[in-house]
Amino acid sequence: MNKNQIINEFKDIGKIKADRKWTDTFLLAILAGAFIALGAYASLLVRIDTPIGIAKFFAGVVFSSGLIMITFTGAELFTGNVLMIFSILFKKINFYKMLKNWIIVYFGNLLGAVFIAFCVLLCLKPSPEYLNLALQTATSKVELNTLNCFISGIFCNWLVCMAVYMAQCAKNIQGKIFGIIFPITIFVIAGYEHCVANMFFIPNGIFAQYFLQNDFGLTFSAFIKNIIPVTFGNIFGAFIFVVLPLWKVYKK
């Protein structure tokens, strides 16, 4: 399949997403948020008592499982849905329909991710090592300034959307999996900021500090301060470095 056909597929996928009933979209978005959170949870577990270089590599590989599950279930992930801009550029949908999808998916992702963050700590009784790592990870994210968050968000979703694009290019299960793993592993190793992953990591850290009976000042206002510039960075990165160049070259 040539590149023009792939871009046409994204154009059509965006229209399907925009026309889907909002209740179905919301349910699929909750699933996607949960899948990303489960991958993020596993990425923390593999880092415990593991040398840092190896830990980051395996964290990237297991984190990829979230996007793999989303790809094969058709769940709705906000950062991937930035590729709906293809449908705007081809005049298949209008801006309002895309924005409506983004809002529904964003809050569905948030609900799914926070639910997993809560369940991990309430139901699974994680070890002190996990709790400390969860708190450390969340704290490192909220300590980033606005520009750090925005730039890191750009690079993150450039890679995430390349993973989505590569998975779409592949026509068998193995190809889709490998197309996803390597770009996602790069972003995890580099420590870039992904808004949906942070919907798990930061609330998970907030909950963890209470289980540790420590008050380090990790709050939901700090979460909002991180998540807003990361979200805009994710949108900007996908648009400028994936959608716009590929549309410009392969739109015919």
Write the SSE topology.
Layout lengths: L2 H17 L2 H24 L6 H22 L4 H4 L3 H5 L5 H29 L4 H15 L3 H24 L3 H18 L4 H17 L8 H31 L2
Helix pairs in contact: 1-6, 2-3, 2-6, 2-10, 3-9, 6-10, 7-10, 8-9, 8-11, 10-11
Note down, in words, how this protein is organized.
It is a single chain. The protein has 252 residues and is an all-alpha fold. Helix content is 82%, strand content 0%. It has eleven helices and no strands. It has helices at residues 3-19, 22-45, 52-73, 78-81, 85-89, 95-123, 128-142, 146-169, 173-190, 195-211, 220-250. Helix 2 packs across helix 10 and helix 10 packs antiparallel against helix 11 (220-250).
Short account of what is shown:
The protein is mainly alpha-helical and 252 residues long. Helices cover 82% and strands 0% of the residues.
